[in-house]
Amino acid sequence: MHRRTLLKAFALSASVVSMGFAFSAQAAETIKVGIMHSLSGTMAISETPLKDVALMSIDEINAKGGVLGKKLEPVVVDPASNWPLFAEKARQLLTQDKVAAVFGCWTSVSRKSVLPVFEELNGLLFYPVQYEGEEMSPNVFYTGAAPNQQAIPAVEYLMSEDGGSAKRFFLLGTDYVYPRTTNKILRAFLHSKGVQDKDIEEVYTPFGYSDYQTIVANIKKFSAGGKTAVVSTINGDSNVPFYKELANQGLKATDVPVVAFSVGEEELRGIDAKPLVGNLAAWNYFESVDNPANQKFVADYKAYAKAHKLPNADTVVTNDPMEATYVGIHMWAQAVEKAGTTDVDKVRAAMAGQSFKAPSGFTLTMDATNHHLHKPVMIGEIESNGQFNVVWQTDEPVRAQPWSPYIPGNDKKSDQPIKTASN
Asked: For the chain, N or C: smaller number of CB within 10 Å?
């Protein structure tokens, strides 16, 4: 009797062990990738579509056989527009979920929050949004624009005859690192062009701010002193009340043009764009660019939205950070194939020089050293349907300058990525 019980116990433990092997073998059949975007809170308006396009990109790669013969398995987390929570979720993705790479963040404060985690654990973050530069981590690939690929060309355009020959600048942003650093760079750039401090106004509002009545009245007052343009680094859902207030007070683009760095097709989807016609946005891609790669990208995303019953699937749009997400995931997949492994150090090396025919119509290349994409610059004018008419663009992709030449001492910074603790 005793012997029989022992035999049963051995048989049971053997089957449990074999089940364990089966589970681990099954788990190894996929490559996990993290998707880390705010799906709730003030940034959800901007970040939710990045999660959706990331999932579409993964489906696309899987339909072609995956990576290294394995399917990609997305692990989606919602840090809920809560900056410390981004760091917790990043740690969870890298240590518990064991993802090979993470695609995520929008605001620079969320990126700064997760950066020490990626550097400590040697993870890889693909960051898809234009930002203030002043950073070049070995653990991040920046697929959005640096200031010389967006902010500087936009202000140069505003100063040109075509852009309205602006002489005064109202710098309006959300109160955190990206707007403040970008405006520090822009103020130094404007000084280099002979613009004095009396012709520059700088105003910041908290995340989620909605009462723009006094600020818009002040913009009107400031514009009485000469040809004025507003440079907006407002982020997230605060853009909706800001643009509504411009319309309420009858501030037209012909009087005071607004150029935005964080407003694209998605943010305009929630408002009547007719009173905003002629205002500008600077990006590296617009949904309206007409080429076969973009026609396919837009059609694929619209089909994905319908198939997955996304909210307002009939009116979904594409935008610049969505394109940057799409390019980043495909480039990472190419680098993994080239490296023959998901090992972070080998994938990092394989990312140098990767290129991809992007929906923008340009072939984008990952710089050989600085972890930033070479990108075209485009300035678009808002149309009544919430789309953008491209009024100016570069002929070729522009190499990023992560360390802005307008910040003293940056000429001595390394052109090689270094951990942020060393910066």
From this structure: N
Domains of the chain: 32-145+289-376 (3.40.50.2300), 148-283 (3.40.50.2300)
C-alpha to C-alpha distance for 327 and 324, rounded to whole angstroms:
5
Is the pLDDT assigned to residue 15 strictly greater than 80? no
Half-sphere exposure of 281 (CA within 13 A, CB side): 27
**What CA–CA distance (Å, rounded) separates 359 from 375?**
12
In this prediction the pTM is 0.91
Q: What share of the chain is helix, strand, coil (3-state, %, to 5)?
A: 45, 15, 40
Are the C-beta atoms of 123 and 139 separated by less than 8 Å? yes
Q: What's 4-33 look like in SS3?
A: HHHHHHHHHHHHHHHHHHHHHHHHCCEEEE
Contact between residue 148 and residue 134 where contact means Cβ atoms under 8 Å apart: no
Instruction: Please give the C-alpha separations between residue 104 and each of 50, 63, 128, 351, 382, in angstroms, as whole numbers.
Output: 8, 23, 7, 18, 27
DSSP state for residue 375 in the 8-state scheme: B
pLDDT of 26 above 90: no
Distance of CA 332 to the CA centre of its chain: 16
Tokens (6 digits) for 294: 């973009």
| Cα(101)–Cα(93) distance, integer angstroms | 9
Q: What angle do CA 373, 349, 294 make, to 5 degrees?
A: 35
Euclidean distance between CA atoms 320 and 264, whole angstroms: 7
At 28, the pLDDT band (50, 70, 90 cuts) reads: low
What is the CB neighbour count within 10 angstroms for residue 353?
12
User: Is there a contact between 180 and 166 (Cβ–Cβ < 8 Å)?
Assistant: no
Residue 183: both structure tokens together: 């405006």
**146 token code pair:** 């640096």
Nearest Cα to 124, choosing from 413, 371, 399, 364?
371
Tokens of 413: 């910074």
Alpha-carbon dihedral sign for residues 285, 287, 290, 292: positive
Q: Is 368 exposed, middle or buried (0-12, 13-18, 19+ CB in 10 A)?
A: exposed
User: Does pLDDT of 20 surpass 70?
Assistant: no
Q: For residues 359 and 257, is the Cβ–Cβ distance under 8 A?
A: no
Burial of residue 224 (CB within 10 Å: 0-12, 13-18, 19+) is exposed
